Amino acid sequence: MSERLQELDRIAVDYHLNHDVPDKFIENLCQEYCCDWLETLIGPNDSVLELGYGDGITLQRLADKPKQYTVVEGAAKLVQLIREKHPGVEAIHTLFEDYQPTEPYDKVLALHVLEHVDDPVALARRMHGWLKPGGELVIVVPNSESLHRQLAVLMGLQPTLDTLSPRDHVVGHQRVYDLPTLATHLRESGFEPISERGFFVKSLPNGMMLDYSPALIQAMNQLSDKLPAHLLANLAVVARKV
After folding, report:
1. What is the per-residue pLDDT across 116-167, written as a single tens digit (0 to 9) for each?
2. Which of 30, 47, 49, 192 would disulfide-bridge 68, Cβ 3.0–4.6 Å?
3. 21-26 contacts, C-beta under 8 A, 24 or more apart
4. DSSP codes of every residue in 152-170
5. CA distance 233 to 33
6. pTM over 0.85
7. Percent of the chain residues past pLDDT 70, beyond the cut
8. Domain span at residue 215?
9. Residue 8: strand, helix, or coil
10. What 3-state DSSP class applies to 133?
């Protein structure tokens, strides 16, 4: 097994399969809210590829919407979980960088993916080849300009907006994004961004919100619709293959 696959198994055990992670309820509520938007992008005749299983929230919400749903996942334990819980979903155990589909897709979902990989532009170029002409890539990444990062810099808690936090390292982040950088990476890969939005009004790190109620976290997500994307915790972009 490659070192990268071993690292993905470690992250799966330490985070995704670990029910004692105290801030997971925050992340899961944010993913649920994001799925309300994702559902509007998926049609009944689409073939959809999702990169990574994570906590399985996206798969649970979307798998029965299109005609075909495939997941590529590098952690063996998560692939086994997909096959046990979702027998109608094709689960492929490989690194994203090694995957080659037999048929192109209508939609590729790369949700919290580009911040994890060694070369995000190279992976985006591979995803370009996985899509049908005019197919769409849906991206979600953490935002370096989020309010909580801006406050941390002003308070001297971190030197720059794109400084990675201890939590970033726990979940395997290699970078955070801003909208111009994300758009540049997508255009360099043969995509044209066609829509953008943000999710979650986050003024504090997760560790300082552990006593927030689920209702408050939900309201902080709902407020996202009223604020500019560049102030929010996560950036979302739909890009079309050109």
Report:
1. 999 999 999 999 999 999 999 999 999 999 999 999 999 999 999 999 998 8
2. 47
3. 22/207, 22/210, 23/167, 23/206, 23/207, 23/209, 23/210, 24/55, 25/214, 25/217, 26/206, 26/209, 26/212, 26/217
4. HHHTTSSSSTTPPPHHHHH
5. 13
6. yes
7. 100
8. 3-241
9. helix
10. strand
Q: Among the residues of 72-160, which ranges form H helices?
A: 76-85, 120-130, 147-154
CATH number at residue 220: 3.40.50.150
User: What is the widest separation between alpha-carbon atoms in the chain?
Assistant: 51
Beta bridge partners of 114: none
The structure tokens listed for 102 are 């037999």
Cβ neighbours of residue 240 closer than 8 Å, sequence gap 6 or more: 134, 135, 136, 137, 191, 192, 194
Q: How many domains does the chain have?
A: 1
Query: Which SS3 state, helix, strand or coil, does residue 171 take?
Result: coil
Only one residue has tokens 């999710």, namely 199
Per-residue pLDDT tens digits for 89-104: 999 999 999 999 999 9
What 3-state class would DSSP assign to 88?
coil
CA dist., res. 169 & res. 172, Å (int):
5
Name residue 71's beta-bridge partners: 50, 91
